Each structure stands twice: as C-alpha cells, then as structure tokens.
Amino acid sequence: MRAAVVGGGIIGTAVARELCRRFPAAQVTVLEKEDRLAAHQTGHNSGVVHAGIYYPPGSLKARLCRQGMDLLRELAGRHGLAYEECGKVVVARDERESARLDALFERAVANGVPGARIVSGAELREIEPHAVGVRAIHSPRTAIVDYRAVTRAIADEVRAAGGAVLLGQEVVAITPRGRTVALRTRAGLEESYDLVVTCAGLQADRVARLAGDPVGPRIVPFLGDYVLLPEDQRPLVRGLIYPVPDPRYPFLGVHLTRHVDGSVSLGPNAFLAPGRESYDGRPAWRDLREVVGFGGFWRFAAGNVPVAVREARTAASRRVFVAAARSYVPDVDPARVVPGPRGIRAQAMDARGGLVDDFVITGRDRVVHVRNAPSPGATSALAIAAYVVDETLARTDLSSAQPLPDEGTDPR
Question: Are 243 and 96 in contact (CB under 8 A)?
Fold first, then answer.
C-alpha cells in the first residue's frame, strides 16, 4: 500500500506514524507545504497537555484527550523530551463562578481526570501562592511540553519505520481515480496513492474541497496574542492558572501559562485574524473575502456582540489585556510585560454560525479528512491518529493491505 498524509503538524505526523505501525510494508509519505514541520497551529500553541477537564463526557474530545495524554507522556519519555506535570488550577473568583466550578468538576470526574479535586481558597494559595480565588479545581497531572519537539520526534519515528517526510510540497490537486488517488503539488510532484489522509489545520476545508468534500464546516481564523512576564516575575506562576469557562462566551479568556523553557505567558485574547496565516497582522485578501462572504460568520458575530467588545478591548489596550490576568494574580506588573508569541486558531464554523466544538472526520472512498481538531487536538494527537486510521479502515476497501491488529500506538 502507498499512503500519503497531507499536513506536517502534530496530527498529520501522528497519523503517518500510526499508518506505519499498522501497515509495516506500506510506503507512507507526509507532504508538508512549509519548509519545516509544525509551522502553524502546532508550533504556535501554548504547549499545555490537557487532562480532560472541560469536555462533554462521551465526546470524542473527552475520550481521545485522556488517551492522548498518556500516549504523549510515553512518547516524550522515549525521546527524552521535556515533559513537566506542573499542574493546573481552574480558579473561581467569586460565588457565582464557584457554582459553575461545581458543574465543571462533575465533568472532570466523569472524564476520569487523574487526581482532580476541589480545593479551598487557602489550599489554592498553597498550590499557587500568588493566586486569588474562593475555590478552584486542581488538576495535578496537567502538563507542559514543546509540541514542535514532539512533532519532530514523531516524524523521526515515521522515518525510522521507512516512511518519508517531504517539505515544501503544497498539495494543489487531489483526484480520486478508482482504486487510487492522484496528488499534485505546487512544486511539481505528481504521485498516485492507495490512501490519502488530509490533516491540513488552517487550510482543512480548502484541502478537503480539492477532493470533492462538502464546503462546510468552514474554517474561520481567530488570532490570539500573548504577553510574557519579565524574568523576575516568573515565580508568580508555578504552573497553569485558568478561568472558569463562562457559557455566555465562546472563548475561554485570558489565562497564565508556564512553559518548558521557564517563560510565563498571559493570554490569549481572540479576535478575527486578517488571514489564516497572517501572524504579522498583514491582511490576506482571499481569506478576508471568504470570511466576509460567509453568512455563518455574520450570524456568529450577531450572536456574540458582548464577547466581540471584550476581545476588541484587550486587542486595543495591553493594560486591559493584562488586567484580566491580574484578577487571578494581582502582583503581575502591567507596565513590565513584553509582547509574546501570536497564534491563529482554525475555528470550524457551520452555516448557522455555530462553532463546531468536537473533532470532525469526513471523507469517502480512499480519501479521509480531519476537518476539525481544536484544543485539545495537540494533546490528543496520538489518540486521534489511531481513531483516524480506524475510521479509514471502516470507510475504505484496504483489505489487501493486511493491517496488523490494533494493539495500541506504541511502535516498539
């Protein structure tokens, strides 16, 4: 069997690794349009390894996040990658948020989040001495990692299994031809494969449409800025300090995050990006025209005016942005924070303006698409890969490829 995976982020490389494991005789190729792996969402996220607190019990997110966290920890150990279980606190600042905290804790228990417990305000200060709140959920197994390094390690396992990783290969045509699928890249590569799996992140809808998949869900890009604490203020945050989600808003809000390099970030905010890959803020007119012409976006905007105002204020004023973090850690000095990284989130949206929350896998014949893999997509990547391959085998006729029985995703 010859298989191609379109997209060299953490999910694409993980799918390629899983294909190598299930089909040892297969020729597996990753095609990435950039000159490096993890160039977009994987390389611009917060580095948090989620434990499964937030997700509706029974959802793909809940199940694959828990599986993915364990698999990711094992992989980091095999490759000697930094993996720090610094823990997370989800902080209720007042009694109103405290009531929502109880409902969130019920989810954590239902999802089997290891070690999760409710702590008092006094216990919170033992865990995070500079944080303020009346109660919190403590998740001691929530961790941090460098997802760029993880992606490179996964790609190394693909190569070790005989697979190939090709950079600078933007796929511009996907043409099913009976029992094969022809791919053509902008660089002039033309090959046929028995199976194609697309994991294109910010370009997921466009790449899926190349193969005749439906237009929806559409990707609407949302930009998120971070700021960094000065080095002498990093001790204000021992691990991860998160807000209690507000059901009125579609985005979580500003939180405080420690990273494996020792830095501490505040953020992100969330507002419409000027382009799917416009990290420098310059507009990408094709992307903007698509958003402006998409009725679902305007329905979303009309139903979320308060959050738009909130996020616009954080985008316009660093002091307002930092004030959100200071409501959890008052000792943060807003005059001394410095600009940090910027990320763009591939938000899948339906025609009614609803945000597509769970993972979405579509496709037909011998082409399968990962259309939506939002947070905790990076945490869940290895488990998503196993799920995608299972779905692929269920949707396609690959009986002649003689897959190995599914005994987990450890390639050893």
Answer: no
